[in-house]
Amino acid sequence: MKLKFFLLDTDYIIEKGISKIRLWGKSADGKNGVVFFDSDPYFYVLPSDIKRAKSEIERALEKKKLRIKGIEEVEKKLSGELRGFLKITCLLPQDTQKVRDAIKVLEKERGGTGSVIDEYEYAINFYRRFLIDKRIDGNCWLEIEGEKKDTDYRVDFAINARKINVLEDISIPELKLLAFDIETFEVAGKKRIVMASFYGRGLKRVLTDQKASYPDWVDLVKDERELLQGIVKTFQGYNPDIIVTYYGDSFDFQVLNERCQANKVKLIISKDKSETKFTRRARISSARLKGIVHIDIFNFISNILSPGLQTEVLTLDAVSSELLGDRKIEVDYQEMLEAWRKGKNLLKLAEYCLKDAELTYRLAELLLPQSFEISKTVGQICFDVSRMTYGQLVEWHLSREANERGEIIPNQPKYAEILKRKKATYVGGFVKEPTAGIHENISVLDFRSLYPSLIVSFNISPETLNCDCCRGDGYRVPGLDYWFCKRRQGFIPSVIKGLIEKRGEIKRRLKELKKSSLEYKVFNNRQYALKIIANATYGYFGFAGSKWYSKECAESCTAFGRYWIKKTIEEAKNRGLEVIYADTDSLFLKTRNKEIERETEEFLDYINKKFPGVLELDLQGYYERGIFIPKGASKGTAKKRYALVDKNGELLIRGLETVRRDWCSLAKEVQRKVLVFVLKEKDLKRAKDYVKGVVEKIRKKEVLLRDLIIYEELTKPIESYKQIGPHVMAAKKIRERGGEVGEGMLVMFVITRGTGSISERAEPVEFSSLEEIDSDYYIHHQVLPAALRVLQVLGVKGEELAC
DNA sequence: ATGAATCGGGG
DNA sequence: GTGTACGATTCAT
Fold first, then answer.
1. What is the DSSP string of A664-682?
2. DSSP per-residue codes, A149-162
3. Which segments of chain A have a pLDDT < 70?
4. DSSP secondary structure letters along A35-71
5. Is the minimum distance from the CB of A257 to strand B below 7 Å?
6. Residues A63-106 pLDDT 10s
7. Contact A530/A502 with Cβ under 8 angstroms?
8. Among A140, A271, A385, A714, which has the highest number of CB atoms less than 10 A from its own CB?
9. Is A335 near strand B, with its CB below 7 A from some atom of it?
10. What is the dihedral of CA A159, A163, A164, A169, to 10 degrees?
11. CB-based burial label for A113 (10 Å; 0-12, 13-18, 19+)
């Protein structure tokens, strides 16, 4: 039989000693299914003497009693050079590492005969390698040929495939999304789930076991065990294709799993009826449900979107407010706890819980299409892609491109090598520190994809670096003793050129499409995916864990970049424009007269004619006023700090917001208001008076204790702290007074008067009062630093505000 | 200054 | 072992 099949998820199993890839997805008529495909794991060996290597490998494997499927001679490119390799085909995915271990001892450095030089691609995950080999574009339509198979899975069909083809169809079928969220409280020192919410098309439900009168979208159950059973049943009953959470990898599913174990409830949601798996990837484990894609949208936001967001904290509230223009329901954490304990106001808690699921759902609706297009560019499934960092996206994209070009994928560096690389530094982009203070009539310009353009224009790639053929006439790197080949295109430039060309083609098509059409949205997401991968590739040259690491390439990129931005600054100055601030690929300009728009446009016309082909300066926007804070202005980081306000009065704040939770809310409020007074109302005096007023109020204790609370989490057991910070000290005090403290607890504390370090004076908020608080601490360590971060550049001194 | 320790997102 | 992060910030020496 033949079937059109949309791929959602991939994994593998071993059945009767045979490795099988499992493809989970949907048929064109909306049925859920699974496809099995036999596949063999393999890797490559680079021999010095191919015949001798082959016989020595066979002997070595025999000695270790390791069985393999076969050895064959193949030709592959290593750094652009065609070489003879041995392809070792194994029986099971876990064998590749074992077989490789038995072979590596033949290398000379490891005391062998030297018939083997190195091994490659032995650590590539089995199903990901399958996707690369089959040229499958992550989430895409496939044509499956095969016959029916019997399984006990919760699916509509199962197929044993003989043939799999990728189809050219950009559509995405209707997918059932279900957002999920839980609320937990510590009851008698133990964390338990008190509420759960689901949000999907046709399903808006909250489950809880605390009695109250609820509307009909709340299901009341008997106890936590029934609540957990209800959660599992709801998942199974709704049968979603995709489950979305916000931070579910590290919180919701972790807690759900713990509570299910404690209550002896089986957490079986997946389609093969296996329990929810937590696969550790680096620090966090991801919660994986076989056959159902769990997307923790926080990962995608944190890894991919965060640099482009205004907010510096990635709370669901801040992210939703920026991306959706909607916010969480405002509930004070302590109020919520009270509500639960007393069984009062529970409707608000239920609404809060459902709203979280709704926001998560809407974020997913907005962001999943982007993640799907990244999947197609990178060639991996969205479960993985949605959790990848930029470096990993680039790596998988390059791996797939290398495979297509018959290039061997280089090995990951060893740990010692990574440490060495981390020590190696090179000069970064050019930064012209901002002229401190307020500026008016500003235009912001940036180079369109600066580094990708430079990589293609100057053929920057590890194997084109200092080539023999262009000694003396290659592309010279300004200020460095390097050159790049002019005769044959390098691997990285050829990959990036492909991305740029594809993006150009899509952008042309976009012009012919209606903005509201589905096609427009799909293509727009795709051009965005191509752009972010192209832009991130430069960083991958200099990333310590990179498979295509080249410090020389990375520093050549920045050297070319510095050369061109400096030249641009010169030209701007020559034309009477003032450069307030420049960083790597962006410039902030102003003029003496008010005609910034006309002058900027003329400048752009002029300068773009002077640049070599692909390099182009773009207008990012015009702003009425802006405040710039140079690096040394106040103690703090090297981060860029500025705030701009446009004609419509919209504030754009970068690097300034002290919205982190280790600042009390009063300090956050003060900084925001100061910015508004200074930038929007142009009233420095009012800003100063306002801060003075707040300082006075703190002295007179006319503020609310809740605005002084600092929140910090105990991220590990309290005994294991070497450095006793304020939150650790406060937690210890809670325990001394008979309270329960544990890992993962959010400690709420204030700083009180007295002697000793700040840590020693940290008091849990429940044991403290406004009377005891240390006004000086709140004035000098919270409110003034937050205000001065802005006001200092306007010549305001701390003493002026608090005398 | 430099290096070690800690935190984030969730509740 | 189906990838043990990473970058910013603060504390301790």
1. -HHHHHHHHHHHIIIIIS-
2. ----SSSSEEEEEE
3. 613, 631-639, 657-661, 803
4. EEEE---EEEEEESSHHHHHHHHHHHHHHTT---SEE
5. no
6. 999 999 999 999 999 999 999 999 999 999 999 999 999 999 99
7. yes
8. A385
9. no
10. -100
11. middle
pLDDT the model gives residue A659: 59
**Distance in angstroms (rounded) separating the CA atoms of residues A317 and A325:** 10
**A562 to each of A427, A434, A466, how far by Cα in Å?**
10, 17, 21
Tokens 């991220």, residue? Answer: A715
User: Would you tell me which residues have their CB within 7 A of strand C?
Assistant: A 11-13, 93-94, 97, 123, 125-128, 279-284, 384, 388-389, 391-392, 395-396, 412, 543, 545, 636-637, 639, 723-725, 757-759
Give the H/E segment covering residue A204: strand A203-208
Nearest to A786 by CA among A681, A683, A713, A707: A707
Helices assigned H by DSSP within A433-490: 450-457
| pLDDT tens column, A416-428 | 888 888 888 888 8
Q: Name the pTM for this structure.
A: 0.90
Q: Which residues are CB-neighbours of A246 under 8 A, at least 6 positions away?
A: A181, A296, A297, A298, A316, A356, A359, A360, A363
Q: What Å distances lie between residue A440 and A647, A657, A676, A677, A716, CA to CA?
A: 11, 21, 15, 15, 49
What separation in angstroms does the CA of A2 have from each of A12, A140, A143, A159, A160? 22, 16, 7, 10, 11
Q: Which amino acid is at A376?
A: K
pLDDT for A722 equals: 79
A44 φ/ψ angles, rounded to the nearest 5 degrees: -115, 150
Q: What is the pLDDT of residue A636?
A: 47
Query: How far is A400 from A412, CA to CA, in rounded Å?
Result: 15
8 Å CB contact between A538 and A554:
yes
Which are the contacts of A125, defined by CB distance < 8 A and separation ≥ 6?
Answer: none
